Amino acid sequence: MAPIARSGSKKTVLVIDDEYKALVPIFKAINREVYEVIYSSGGDVSKYIEGNNQVGVIITDLKATRIGAIGLLNKIKNILPETAFLITSPTGVILYKDKNFYEYLGHSLLHSINEILDVLLCSRNHNQNKRLHSFGAIIGASEVMQEVYARIEIVAKTNITVLVQGETGTGKELVAKTIHVRSQRSKGPFVPINCGAIPPTLIESELFGHEKGAFSSAYQTKKGLFEIAHGGTIFLDEIAEIDKASQVKLLRVLQEKTAQRVGSTKVYETNTRVIAATSKDLQKEVFAGNFREDLFYRINVFPIYLPPLRERKDDIPILVEYFTTKYSREVGKKGIRITREAMDVFCRQEYPGNVRELENLVIRSLISCKNNIIDTPDVLDSLSSTLHKSFYESNVNTSFGNVESLEDIEKNAIINALSKTKGNKKAAARILGITRRLLYLRLKKYDIGVENFSRV
What we know:
Blueprint: E1 12-16, H1 24-29, E2 36-40, H2 46-49, E3 55-61, H3 68-76, E4 84-89, E5 92-97, E6 100-105, H4 113-127, E7 134-135, E8 138-139, H5 143-156, E9 162-165, H6 172-181, E10 190-194, H7 200-208, E11 209-210, E12 222-223, H8 225-228, E13 233-237, H9 244-256, E14 258-260, E15 267-269, E16 273-278, H10 282-287, H11 293-299, E17 302-305, H12 316-328, E18 337-338, H13 340-348, H14 354-368, E19 373-374, H15 376-383, H16 389-392, E20 397-398, E21 401-402, H17 406-420, H18 425-432, H19 436-445
Parallel strand pairs: 1-2, 1-3, 3-4, 9-16, 9-17, 10-13, 13-16, 18-19
Antiparallel strand pairs: 4-5, 5-6, 7-8, 11-12, 14-15, 20-21
């Protein structure tokens, strides 16, 4: 075979086939206007590898060559560490990229090869030196978020099932929406459902629909969310909360691409991409017997892990600025400035509620601030009873003096809120971000009399 013919900045795609030439259709389908394509049906492939950093993707079969795809991967990955591998197998396609394996169960490479190559090569080359501060509606410039963006970009143009894992408040639904918007299904509906909010007796009806009279309260026929999401994406949030009986039915739908309304004998086809999410460790749930192992493997085709905010604190200033701009108009304030000391307070928190908790803290600080400046006392007041010990144990000097205890700050925050509202408990609770009942309990705990705050 002739040596590689390089043309401009084109990346090379190397197809390494077996003796049965099963990959010839894929080889022929690759766009020659964009990529240099090399075909080898076994033998020594080192002549295409050594000294050639233009090989961007290698496509091969699990049993191609005498050493197989994994043996080939182990031989080449140290020579070309940036090269991605697409390995065909009886169950689908395996992607090896950046030292990780991703399995696309049941995925056909032939019909989407150019889209996948575009994501793996063109998009990566375009953005490899560009650090993104946001990706769709997702905000963050940290290294871990760049990895999240890259994984979204890889999977968005495919139809495979995605599992988004992360703590509460990390933005799992934003990831799902971003995947949908960047997919070929973007013109179709995006249908979210919180599985944990639906009683076990109703989850099957919600997902797959029911016929009139199927049960006592079924007064009319109802479409299920899989029907409503036809041609689009269904987002199954908190999928770990689905009961075992419904898990069986969901598994059947994912396997057979068909569903059946409750009370009906007719089967309808589903053309819906599934993105699932959970704040739990699903593997632990499988080991505990709470989640079916076969369903886990069916939805865990392409996992995306969303890190908690405490693992990407570099993003906190960006997020604070974003939420300040977003909500300043809603609270009737313009040109808000945040002092360096106040930003330091924002950055020192651990945020067990993650981005959602930070968002609420910024809103409360906006409401509390004076002269369109968010300063340290505004943030401390807003923290109130949700303050985290990590900040108070840091011995930081603030305008309140040396912080000594959580209770001192909580009491001061309540007093300041009541002073600002002239004793209006409802308004004070809103500023503090707590319920009136919790405020009443704190007033009793600290023996604070509302009558001491005269209304004007």
